[in-house]
């Protein structure tokens, strides 16, 4: 009976794994298939042109401006949320009392459960009017979008980094303290280094979360297909273009296919980041042996 249960569990695990892998492959195949018409029609210009005018008499399908906007939003958000998440994780790991840790974790869990559309509504209703008062010419702009992305991604960053720090063997920190290290030094230089693979994974997951976010940037970024000269300028990332135009575009048209090219670019970026993270973790672990 036990052998039968083990075999059934093994079969169930394998079937689930193959279904997940198969679904991922089908997603790739579907997106690539739908992207081919635009790639044939526009060619390399779709990646090198700044002009996105898909409804003109002579349409242009350049996604470079929107790609740059996506990258800029991701960079600015990451520069804020990753250090902030690490500081909060550091405090929870080493300095927070049990009650404080439970309180912070509860707040983080609550924030992580807030739908992105609610965060977008909060930004548009309460924060966007303030943008005009601080010198912005558009109430929805890059700064507002970055603020929303920080709120949205912060719970994931802080939670994952705290889990990475907590997974380190406590004997490492205790050994450093026994040798005379300060608490801050022991955690910052010893525990953090040991938790580096988990921290890198949390950073990659955060970046993937930010670059793939749709609703917040759709509502708060301003929707202007332009290269920003300041953080107060409106922008339009790839995800906002896909969400705003996919429901109105003619299915099977070059415009429709160009939107799939945008999705393919985002998917490729996510895969590259994930593979890079795995390679880093593997190299780091091999270097420790």
TrEMBL record:
* Keywords recorded for this protein, A-Z: Cell membrane, Membrane, Phosphate transport, Transmembrane, Transmembrane helix, Transport
Which subcellular locations apply to this protein? Cell membrane
Question: What are its GO biological-process terms?
Answer: phosphate ion transport; transmembrane transport
Q: Which residues form the ABC transmembrane type-1 domain?
A: 67-277
- Recorded topology in the membrane: Multi-pass membrane protein
Gene Ontology CC: one annotated term: plasma membrane
What residues form the membrane-spanning segments? 12-32, 61-89, 110-130, 142-165, 186-207, 254-275
* Matches recorded under SUPFAM superfamilies: MetI-like
Listed InterPro entries? MetI-like, MetI-like_sf, Phosphate_Transport_Permease
Specify the domain of life of the species encoding this protein. Answer: Bacteria
Give the protein family: Belongs to the binding-protein-dependent transport system permease family. CysTW subfamily.
Tell me the PANTHER family matching this sequence: PHOSPHATE TRANSPORT SYSTEM PERMEASE PROTEIN PST, PHOSPHATE TRANSPORT SYSTEM PERMEASE PROTEIN PSTC
Q: What is this protein called?
A: ABC-type phosphate transport system, permease component
- List the source organism: Marinitoga piezophila (strain DSM 14283 / JCM 11233 / KA3)
Task: List the lineage, top down.
Answer: Bacteria, Thermotogati, Thermotogota, Thermotogae, Petrotogales
């Amino acid at each position: 009976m036990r052998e039968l249960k083990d075999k059934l569990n093994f079969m169930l695990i394998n079937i689930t794994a193959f279904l997940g892998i198969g679904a991922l492959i089908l997603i790739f195949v579907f997106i690539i298939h739908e992207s081919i018409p635009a790639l044939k029609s526009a060619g390399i210009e779709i990646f090198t042109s700044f002009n996105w005018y898909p409804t003109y008499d002579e349409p242009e399908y350049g996604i470079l401006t929107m790609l740059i906007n996506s990258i800029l939003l991701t960079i600015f958000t990451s520069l804020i949320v990753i250090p902030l998440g690490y500081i909060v994780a550091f405090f929870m790991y080493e300095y927070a009392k049990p009650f404080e840790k439970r309180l912070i974790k509860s707040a983080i869990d609550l924030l992580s459960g807030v739908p992105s559309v609610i965060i977008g509504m909060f930004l548009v209703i309460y924060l966007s009017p303030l943008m005009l008062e601080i010198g912005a010419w558009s109430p929805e702009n890059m700064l507002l979008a970055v603020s929303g992305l920080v709120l949205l991604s912060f719970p994931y960053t802080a939670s994952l980094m705290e889990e990475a720090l907590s997974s380190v063997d406590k004997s490492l920190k205790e050994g450093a303290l026994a040798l005379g290290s300060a608490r801050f030094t022991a955690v910052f230089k010893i525990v953090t280094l040991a938790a580096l693979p988990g921290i890198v994974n949390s950073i990659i997951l955060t970046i993937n979360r930010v670059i793939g976010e749709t609703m917040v940037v759709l509502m708060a970024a301003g929707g202007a297909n332009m290269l920003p000269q300041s953080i107060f300028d409106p922008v339009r990332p790839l995800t906002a273009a896909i969400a705003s135009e996919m429901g109105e575009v003619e299915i099977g048209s070059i415009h429709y296919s160009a939107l799939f090219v945008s999705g393919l670019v985002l998917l490729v970026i996510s895969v590259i980041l994930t593979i890079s993270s795995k390679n880093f973790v593997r190299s780091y672990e091999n270097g420790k042996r």
